[in-house]
């Protein structure tokens, strides 16, 4: 339950039912102000999000994905940020829940900590970059957008929406008290490496659509090791240009990380992730529907990865 005196509702959008989700929802109907919308055919994340935002009844629209664990004061804290104003968007950091995997021990733990820190370290005018699975805006702010989530962005749809919110005049804030547990992070390099390729392709599409969004300039790294690293990832990205290459590379990195010392395995995974991101940016398709199988393959691999 939520600790709030404000009227509120939970709206769940089911994009095709293929598990026990309806039964789980029914079990909570007597405890929560709950509505569920069912789509008999799968239309994808973007369509489900747009339906949810359009059908929600409240003034404050709080996004909370199904792999997040909200605290009892979540609704109250979000509503407080929007009281009497429509020009604020609340972006909430996610904290990955540890997993008992070699990937977590060698690479995932440090990567997750860096990712969480980015929410708090980002310059205010770049906070839209981290707009993701847990945030809030008012109905008025949402309605001012030219459209909802862009169906071209099968991946990267969240930050693309965050960019347009910021461009429309919404000031994005980050509230540490709303940091939330995330239970859907990658569990293996076999998932993380090809996902990086898709993220790179998404960035390429973003630049094509929003050329006015300036890139953050990364300072030239000095030192022999860092220059060798940059050259190596650039060469790998030039040689391995397709998504399927990084599926294979990811599986290889996962296998290697289980056998190598942790500090070596970490660098192997990091090298593959950075190479994949570069390759996706340079060579990936901007028709992101090409990469729809990525998520289903990740889900298929999760069970073996936890064993």
Polypeptide structure, described:
With 307 residues, the protein is an alpha/beta fold. It contains eleven helices and nine strands. The chain has a four-stranded mixed β-sheet with strand order 3-7-5-8. It has a three-stranded mixed β-sheet with strand order 4-9-6. The relative contact order is 0.13. The mean pLDDT is 92.
What is this structure, in a nutshell?
By secondary structure, this protein is an alpha/beta fold. Helix content is 50%, strand content 12%. It has eleven helices and nine strands.
Element layout with pairings:
Blueprint: E1 10-15, H1 21-27, E2 34-39, H2 45-55, E3 60-64, E4 68-69, H3 74-82, E5 88-91, E6 94-96, H4 102-121, E7 134-138, H5 139-143, H6 157-167, E8 171-174, E9 180-182, H7 189-209, H8 224-239, H9 243-259, H10 262-283, H11 293-305
Parallel strand pairs: 1-2, 5-8, 6-9
Antiparallel strand pairs: 3-7, 4-9, 5-7
Helix pairs in contact: 4-10, 7-9, 7-10, 7-11, 8-10, 9-10
């Amino acid at each position: 339950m939520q600790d709030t005196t404000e009227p509120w509702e939970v709206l769940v959008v089911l994009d095709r039912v293929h598990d026990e989700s309806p039964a789980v929802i029914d079990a909570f109907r007597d405890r929560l102000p709950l509505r569920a919308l069912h789509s008999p055919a799968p239309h994808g994340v973007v369509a489900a999000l747009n339906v949810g935002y359009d059908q929600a009844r409240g003034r404050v629209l709080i996004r909370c994905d199904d792999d997040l664990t909200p605290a009892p004061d979540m609704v109250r804290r979000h509503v407080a940020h929007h009281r009497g104003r429509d020009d604020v968007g609340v972006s909430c950091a996610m904290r990955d829940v540890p997993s008992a995997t070699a990937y977590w021990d060698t690479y995932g733990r440090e990567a997750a900590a860096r990712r969480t820190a980015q929410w708090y370290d980002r310059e205010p005018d770049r906070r839209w970059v981290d707009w993701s699975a847990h945030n809030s805006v008012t109905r008025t702010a949402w309605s001012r957008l030219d459209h909802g989530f862009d169906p071209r962005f099968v991946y990267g749809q969240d930050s693309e929406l965050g960019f347009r919110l910021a461009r429309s005049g919404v000031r994005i804030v980050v509230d540490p008290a709303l940091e939330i547990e995330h239970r859907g992070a990658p569990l293996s390099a076999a998932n993380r490496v090809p996902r990086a390729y898709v993220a790179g392709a998404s960035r390429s599409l973003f630049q094509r659509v929003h050329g006015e969004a300036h890139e953050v300039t990364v300072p030239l790294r000095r030192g022999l090791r860092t220059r060798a690293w940059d050259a190596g990832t650039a060469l790998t990205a030039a040689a391995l240009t397709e998504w399927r290459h990084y599926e294979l590379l990811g599986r290889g990195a996962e296998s290697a990380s289980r056998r190598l010392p942790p500090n070596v395995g970490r660098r192997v995974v990091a090298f593959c992730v950075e190479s994949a991101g570069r390759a996706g940016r340079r060579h990936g398709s901007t028709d992101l529907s090409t990469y729809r199988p990525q998520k289903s393959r990740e889900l298929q691999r999760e069970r073996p990865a936890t064993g």
